[in-house]
Amino acid sequence: MQFTLQAQRRDVQGRRASRRLRRTGRVPAIVYGGHAPAQPITLDHNEIYHLLENEAFHSAIISLVVDGATVPVLLRDAQYHPFKPLVLHVDFQRVAEGQMIHIKVPLHFKGESESPAVKLHHCIVNHVMTELDIQCLPKDIPEFIEVDLSHLEPGHSVHVSHLVLPAGVKSVMHGGEDPVVATAVKVRGSEEAEESGAATE
Length: 201
Description:
Elements: E1 3-9, H1 15-23, E2 26-32, E3 39-44, H2 45-52, E4 62-66, E5 69-80, E6 87-94, E7 101-110, H3 116-119, E8 124-127, E9 131-136, E10 145-148, E11 157-159, E12 170-171, E13 180-185, H4 188-200
Parallel strand pairs: 1-4, 2-6, 7-10
Antiparallel strand pairs: 1-3, 2-3, 4-5, 5-6, 7-9, 8-13, 9-12, 11-13
């Protein structure tokens, strides 16, 4: 999915300047990385607020248009007001076409209700991870990674090594780890029901 975001250069910095910007409906932000110095910018609050609600925006290459010049960037951080629906600050990182990057993408789970663990044994599937840290070129960033749970058995787990990743995408794991993505947990009531059913038979 393609995203284009309009921005303006920000020459005045500091807390007071940021507060003044927010009162006018603008959000202070910064663009860093690459061979250029960090560039403070401002964004329209309503535009960035609604874009941040879109899951795909968090792992997409964004065309950031700063005073007419387009820069490809990734969203790296967004700070929110603790209890008001307000975006306080946003960080973007410049990306180069041929440079490998690290990014976290969301996990989408499918097949849970058809799995033996849920359908036959009434287990609860615990989604241990909701996003995956990957390494790839900017052009290969997937919108999400699909996790197939349709064959999950009671007491078993799906690990990162079990995931089918798109071409050009590698998972980032440290120290030989193979983290659990999802696991099927038996509920006490379902175990008793199974034992009761077996006894009746």
